[in-house]
What does this fold into?
Amino acid sequence: MGVEIKIEHLTKSFGKQLIWNDVTLTMPAGEICVMLGPSGTGKSVMLKTLIGLLKPDRGSVIIEGTDIANCSEKDLYEIRKLFGVLFQDGAMFGSMNLFDNVAFPLREHTKKSESEIKRIVLEKMDLVGLIGAEYKLPGEISGGMRKRAGLARALVLDPEILLIDEPDSGLDPVRTSFINQLFVDLNAQINATFMIVTHDIHSVRVVPDQIGLLYHKHLAMFGPREMLLSSDEPVVRQFLNAQTVGPIGMSEEKDATELEAEKDMDLPPLPPIPLQLETSNGIPRKSQRPPGEWCRLNGVTPPPGSFRADSILSASAAKSSD
Ligand SMILES: Nc1ncnc2c1ncn2[C@@H]1O[C@H](COP(=O)(O)OP(=O)(O)O)[C@@H](O)[C@H]1O
Ligand SMILES: [Mg+2]
It folds into this structure.
């Protein structure tokens, strides 16, 4: 059914290098969350902290009443069974075919028979569109197929929480759209809580229920998609619209001279908020809200042209003209 993840005052450093400080957010059960941020802001470190592979300096990660940042190895082992993870590089075993790669968690963590394993592996490979490729080696397939194989492997233990690190890096726009559709359909089907780390602002605009932005060693904002897409907060606005004008520079933060030089520049208008991506069969996901609901409930006027069937196209047009 998906479980809630409550992150409180989470702080992580490596030696003297602070990665992020005092991160507090709640990922609602069954919702799709996306975490954004410039390279090196600690998005992957965040995912690894969420499954207890890395220990934070301070703070807690509460899942079903257990604080996984401060629990015993035994409790951590149990909680980890709730997770499916797709690491940034897919992390496939190069000498194993896709079937054996996907079967690996079942053989490691369960006592299921080989025939039961075969049934589950083929079911998950079917879900991600990889039937027919079971006996290929990871090196023999495209990057997009490797990601989908990694996703099938993340799904075999029926996770309540799915962590996905940059599923779209190295994928062309069409394959990125396919994988986005896959996430939305999967979320409808398994109702797990998703945390997707991505750089692709088009995906961010159409896929998630919640968006977070890590910037300059802290969480700049986390909240419903419509809240961030209508936000005037300079960092959020700049990042979500891929603009050069704003506080974020080539080397993370602009200096005073750079900011002074652009202080009278007009910010481009906020592009329309597109409709959220629907499931393939048109049946709404449990956590999907009607278009414009957040704006209405919070008295926020969305940018002109929002929530129209053609605003997805105008958003991508805005992106390509940047
Ligand atoms: N195990 C580690 N030991 C020391 N430093 C690390 C480790 N993992 C990540 N880092 C550092 O943490 C920072 C954030 O890394 P990462 O989470 O991979 O960034 P992102 O995924 O946002 O691009 C980087 O400066 C990286 O060098
Ligand atoms: Mg990363």
